[in-house]
Design brief:
By secondary structure, the chain is of the alpha+beta class. It contains 1 helix and 7 strands, in the order H-E-E-E-E-E-E-E. The protein has a 4-stranded antiparallel beta sheet, with no helix packed on it. A 3-stranded antiparallel beta sheet has the order 3-4-5, with no helix packed on it. A hairpin with a 2-residue loop joins strand 6 and strand 7. The protein is flat, with a radius of gyration of 24 Å.
Length: 151
């Protein structure tokens, strides 16, 4: 028989989260833009990681034309801006469900001073935008060899 820890407020927190979701969904539908289904601001998810000589950002931008994405580095801040447009091919009367988000997005990320902003590279493949931001030479880690004098 295992011992289960009793957490008296867990159910209360779960209930509060469910109510918040219910109210958010209800008000979004009631006061949202009825002309364009799901036409609201959205935030594409990103992963940011560091390699030995660069900082890499990967953003999920499926269904977006790379020409509709603006990337700018200014004052050690990376700005990522774009728009996913609603497809007008489907008549609104024929829509059964719209769950994908549409509209403009803007993300900004503070960059360390070690990034060489003149050498940032952007690639777009299979809906993933990859930004590679190399570090300046003086900021790259280097190994220092220890010299031992011969006796």
């Amino acid at each position: 028989m295992s011992i289960t820890r009793w957490e008296p407020f867990r159910d209360l927190v779960v209930t509060q989260d469910r109510f918040n979701q219910l109210f958010n969904d209800t008000f979004a539908r009631a006061y949202g833009d009825q002309q364009e289904p799901a036409q609201h601001a959205w935030v594409p998810p990103v992963d940011i990681y560091e390699t030995g000589d660069s900082l890499v950002l990967k953003a999920e931008l499926p269904g977006i034309n790379p020409d509709d994405v603006e990337i700018r580095v200014e004052d050690n801040t990376l700005y990522l801006k774009g728009e996913r447009k609603f497809e007008k091919e489907v008549k609104e009367a024929g829509l059964h469900r719209v769950e994908r988000s549409y509209g403009t997005f803007m993300r900004s990320f503070s960059l360390p001073n070690t990034i060489d902003s003149d050498k940032v590279k952007a690639e777009y493949e299979n809906g993933i935008l990859t930004l590679t931001m190399p570090k300046r030479e003086e900021a790259k880690p280097r190994t220092i060899k220890i010299n031992v004098p011969k006796a």
